[in-house]
Amino acid sequence: MTYIIANKKERLQKQELKRLLLKLFGKEISDSPDIHILNPEDKNSIGIEEVKELQQSMRFKPFQEEVQVGIILNAQKLTHQAQNSMLKSLEDSSETSVYILCVDNEKNLLPTIRSRGVILYPKREEGGEGEVPVDKSDIENVMETFFDLSPIEQFNIIEEYSENKEISLTFINGLEETLREELELDIKNGNIDSSQRNLEFLKVVEKSREKISSNCNRKLTLEAMIMQLKT
């Protein structure tokens, strides 16, 4: 069986992936010898060799669970040659050997790949914006490298985390925690100038939290906050 999770937002892809794994395994599972993940990380493309390694790991029967899963993240990076090399594996996939491709848009996969899979389109949870689930660990991971990203990458993240009030406030809380940790280090190391700067940054973050709590435009508030933190 092959599933294709298609959405431009990785957060929604991960939510759908988590739900799908729960369905396949019948329980929450994150670390298992029967979960094989191909993640290109900083690579611009996924080639045949990487795909072959994944296929090799999927050759045998499940080791621990009743099903094994091969996951390809950022599947839009698969070269055409790599996608063609997967066709036989996808055809031979079964209820006990499942492939999951996470992609920003299903049209970035060859028609022959799309025809072999069930396409899932993850959406925001219904029932009001306050009920949209927030994966705090994802936001913590984002904050670890946020200030090292380019302005375009930062504003793309802001657009994603301005979807609703809960997500925006969680983003701000993560930013505040990062700044407080830096402040503690500055004080410990006697970095007066840096500690004063981080104190001012914390004031900016607090004002932004107040604006979002008061239902001001979330995207504009977060963008203005980041611009102030860059000065």
TrEMBL record:
GO terms for biological process: DNA-templated DNA replication. Coiled coil: none annotated. It comes from candidate division WS6 bacterium 34_10. This is DNA polymerase III.
